[in-house]
Specification:
The chain has 329 residues and is α+β, with helices and mostly antiparallel strands. Helices cover 39% and strands 22% of the residues. The strands form 2 sheets. Strands 1, 2, 3, 4, 5, 6 and 7 form a 7-stranded antiparallel β-sheet that branches. Strands 10-9-8-13-12-11 form a 6-stranded antiparallel β-sheet, sandwiched between helices. The chain is elongated.
Length: 329
């Protein structure tokens, strides 16, 4: 009786110390390392495996394992799809592993009870083993595998309760750490978005100041070209002037451009004139811009390199000429 109380007190002290250290973990990898070492040193198992479900990918990932010689290792590519109804999917779906079950499966002979397609994941041929669920209220999020392959000491169902209690605490800690990591990623994303917005506002301010100081059409066009290329980081930019001739025909002229090598190029010959009545058919991109839209996808015939995607943007006014810009990212 006294020995049982002593073992119970030792187990409680171990569980309290380990769970207290879990509270300080802020990364899944750190938490799993702590759990692995705690199980091996605190509960005395020869071998431990820690596997987690990645619900977004629908896979089971083995994060830490123990080889046939009792050495800890980190499997680089043990990712198993769960949608095929295989060994691991059945294991996770077993009623004994669910929230209303005992939380563990005892295998009298793991080598015999494991499906052939999963035998290589045992890293040896263990006998008695435990599979202990990491579970939340909604789902099984992974499991702990333990055995005593190297020493040959027995493993029995009576050994499961301390490990089940630990697994429940580990599952809660994993949930908390996952939340913290998600929050950190969200904060990082928000900070990056804020920096981008600040950079955009700075660019707009600088571009506005440069345009305000430009005198004459050529200076304005040079400023626009430089602002778009350098400020927004596009590889190639084209600026077009659309004017109406005395006979009412529209003429489109590229006044600033970029060649295939990314070098600024000179004026291009005016594009063929088109009548307003046929504009939507013969030049649908230009027609779209002149209707007041800010962007349009150009037709293949208007591109120097049709295999690359392009974006046309424009600003249309009520009087001639209409300045339009075409930009390539």
């Amino acid at each position: 009786m006294g020995q049982e109380r002593q073992r119970a007190a030792h187990g409680m002290a171990w569980l309290l110390d380990t769970t207290n250290r879990m509270v300080g973990c802020r990364a899944v990898d750190t938490l799993l390392d702590l759990a692995y070492d705690a199980i091996r040193t605190g509960l005395g198992y020869d071998r431990v495996g820690l596997l987690l479900v990645h619900s977004a990918q629908g896979t089971l990932v083995e994060h830490i394992g123990t080889d046939a010689h009792g050495q800890k290792f980190y499997p680089p590519d043990r990712v198993t799809p769960l949608g095929d109804g295989g060994h691991f999917a059945r294991l996770l779906a077993d009623p004994r592993m669910q929230a209303d079950g005992p939380g563990f499966i005892y295998m009298e002979d793991a080598s015999r009870d494991t499906s052939p397609e999963a035998l290589d994941r045992l890293d040896g041929r263990p006998g008695p083993s435990l599979r202990v669920a990491l579970r939340s209220a909604e789902a099984v999020v992974g499991y702990i595998a333990v055995d005593n392959l190297t020493s040959g000491r027995p493993v029995t169902p009576e050994d499961a309760p301390p490990l089940v209690a630990f697994a429940n605490a580990l599952a809660s800690a994993l949930e908390n750490v996952a939340f913290l990591e998600s929050r950190e990623r969200h904060i990082t994303t928000l900070n990056a978005d804020l920096r981008q917005r600040v950079e955009q506002l700075t660019w707009l301010q600088e571009a506005a100041a440069a345009l305000a100081s430009a005198s004459g059409l050529d200076a304005v066009l040079d400023t626009i070209y430089a602002c778009v290329c350098q400020g927004l980081g596009y590889d190639r930019v084209g600026i077009f002037m659309v004017t109406r001739r005395e006979d009412g025909m529209l003429v489109e002229t590229e006044v600033r451009g970029t060649d295939d090598a990314g070098r600024p190029c000179g004026l291009q010959p005016p594009q063929p004139s088109v009548d307003d009545t046929t504009l939507s058919v013969e030049s649908p991109d230009l027609h779209h811009l002149l209707q007041g839209h800010t962007t349009t996808a150009p037709t293949a015939g208007r591109l120097r390199r049709p295999t690359c995607a392009r974006l046309w943007t424009g600003a249309c006014v009520n009087s001639s000429p209409w300045p339009c810009a075409m930009m390539w990212p």
